[in-house]
Amino acid sequence: MKRNPELTVRPLAGLPMFATGMSIAQAICVGLEAEGDRFRDGDILVVAQKIVSKVEGRARDLHTFTASEEAHELSRATGREPEMMQAILEESSQILRRTPAAVIAAHRTGHVLANAGIDASNVEGGDAGRVLLWPLDPDASARALRHEVQVLSEVRIGVVIADSMGRAWRIGTLGTAIGCAGLAVLEDRRGRAQDLYGRTLQATVIGIADSVAAMAALAMGEGAEGTPVALVRGCERWVTEEDGPGAASGLRPIEQDMFR
Questions:
Q1: How far is CA 66 from the centre of its chain?
Q2: Could you read off the pLDDT of 199-254 as tens digits, one per residue?
Q3: Which of 61, 63, 87, 138 yields a CA-CA distance of 20 to 30 A from 234?
């Protein structure tokens, strides 16, 4: 019987408070070196979306959004401020559901999540209306981060940008890959593997990038832990030479979506 890999997840502590223009790659390499470690070939670097958005200057003050009539209508339906509704509209391609608890939106990248990923937690000035938007192109951000780390470390790694997202029919959020480079997003085992009794698998497609993101998110934490980066080891078989198609390749095509 084939032995499964032994996986380890290590949150990286001691990182700076990231701000616009800072290098995430350099800070991580310095942090690893300070702990007597360095990147190894086949490592996967998982980075929280928030620090990517911060260094890319994606913070906005809600008062800078001019609410449209659609935003005012959403505000009346949800009881939330019109400027927040306008921010969600500008980050979305479609509003799918609206309740006082959350607005479920199809983000312009194709991901479906609450409030188009706009969040004020762990954001300086969040109580005063400062929010973070997602990176403009999370997959491009992952590719750029991977390139910089590989230049600095001289080894081949994978990169995942993760955010916490809800799931249909389930309570609780889960770390999810919104950007990916150098890692298999999916492993399609249909027609290629067998179960214990020799039956060929017919429907199994494993979400590799999302599984890595979920595992790392547990180690990084969601609150005041201050560890927005984790290093995952043991997944070398899924780390690729090329950047690959990105996390967007794991989105279900709209014609296959049974929930809309």
A1: 28
A2: 888 888 889 999 999 999 999 987 667 799 999 999 999 999 999 999 999 998 88
A3: 138
Q: Is 223 helix (H, G, I), strand (E, B) or coil?
A: coil
pLDDT of 3-57, one tens digit each?
A: 667 899 999 988 999 999 999 999 999 999 999 999 999 999 999 999 999 999 9
CATH number of the domain encompassing residue 76: 3.90.1660.10
Q: State the residue range of the domain holding 207.
A: 8-56+137-247
Q: Can you tell me which residue has the tokens 């408070």? A: 17
* Domain tally, the chain: 2
Cβ proximity of 109 and 248 under 8 Å: yes
CA dihedral 168, 175, 60, 76 (to 10 degrees): 20
Token duo for residue 152: 């600095």
Q: What pTM does this model have? A: 0.93
Neighbours of 170 (CB within 10 A): 8
Check whether residue 147 and residue 194 sit in a common domain: yes
Specify if 260 maps to a domain. no
Angle, CA 217 vertex, CA 215 and CA 219 arms, to 5°: 80
> Per DSSP, which regions of the chain are E strands?
8-11, 44-48, 59-61, 92-98, 103-107, 112-114, 130-132, 158-167, 170-181, 186-188, 205-207, 229-233
